[in-house]
Amino acid sequence: MKMLVVFVILVHVSQHASAVVLYEGDHFLLPCEFPTFELDNPTVVWSRYDLSPSTVHQRQKEGDELKNQNQLYRDRTSMRTDALETGDLSLNLTKLQLSDSGTYTCSVTSAIWREKRVTEVQLQVKERFPSWAKALLILLVLLVVVLLVTGVLLVHFRQYFMSVYQVEVDSGAESVLLPCKTTVCLPGDIKVEWRDRDNWEVHVYPNGSDQPEKQHQFFRGRTEMKRNLLKPGDLSLTLKYPTDEDTGTFTCTVYNREGNILMKKQVELKVQVCQVEVEEGVESVQLPFRTTGDLPEDTTVWWTDSYRLVHKYQDGSDQPEEQDQFYRGRTEMKRNLLETGDLSLTLKKPKVRDTGRYGCRVYDMEKNLLRGKIVLLQVKDRIQDTDQTVDIRNRSSSTDPTPLMADQSV
Ligand SMILES: *[C@@H]1O[C@H](CO)[C@@H](O)[C@H](O)[C@H]1NC(C)=O
Q: Which residue lies with its CA nearest to atom 9 of ligand 1?
């Protein structure tokens, strides 16, 4: 009877009649009481006179008599086994259907009367979920599906919908592609300009034509934009050897011959800061910095920690007399570094106190910044039970010892 208590509205139509509202699938006990135990050979019949045959359930002394039962009620009705002895003639009707709506009459027949109508119960069975609720549910489900699909499409094709595209790359990557694509048909004679967060000129297409000197030295030799005739809308830029210094928003602007902007897109580049971890006791550690080769001859390379000069390379050689006492005799750079672009610094016998932030700055003679990178070094305390040490230095590329100052006692 559980939830019926909530849904049932009992309205007494007359002394012996009542109306009940129920929902599909419920079961319900149609109430009827009569002192049948006082009668001689009683028969109880539950009927619906609007149906034919009208018998819903019949009980007599011998038990249930369901020969004349309307097939609608087959296996769905039951009465207490001791109904005739107790006088509780209630009918349990299960698995209610919409077609069960109607008036149920409980009548008793005995040797004395032909038939006595004891109770009438009006039953109204409703759909548990009315059609408008079903429609609403379907609409909601559809809405959720549409939202999900839109979300997936947006994520997938965000470069076409959103102005800012995000690219993330590891420190040490050889190159990164900054996408700039358009589905619009572009005329043949366009000019494309890539600029960085500080409005420095990163790349111009077609390059070399009018102002070859416009590109900032910081990006010289590091950019490449191939206009592919098969993919005319692809103006993506390849940036070689990206470092944390490149992190920021790049803007790709397309102009037509008259200098009007046809399209402007942004790419947010994030280059991870390089992190090196090593255990105290290793022979040496390398602070890696690879960039493009063929740097100008007048290039100066400075490696610094937070407040000291760690290593300086100028006029084609190391400048040990300028480096801080603390690092004397402990640093080394590669040979031919300007040609190869390998500006990595080797720090010998790293100690826990060497842990910190190292920066490499590369300038030309006019003090223009050519390259830059940060390396976070962590030298960990040596673990007691490990007697193996790891040398992460690339031995094959180690070079002749740097000319050092006389004092190597540090
Ligand atoms: C009516 O029948 C249902 C289903 O068999 C049962 O769960 C319920 O207890 C019965 N109700 C009574 C009052 O016997």
A: 1
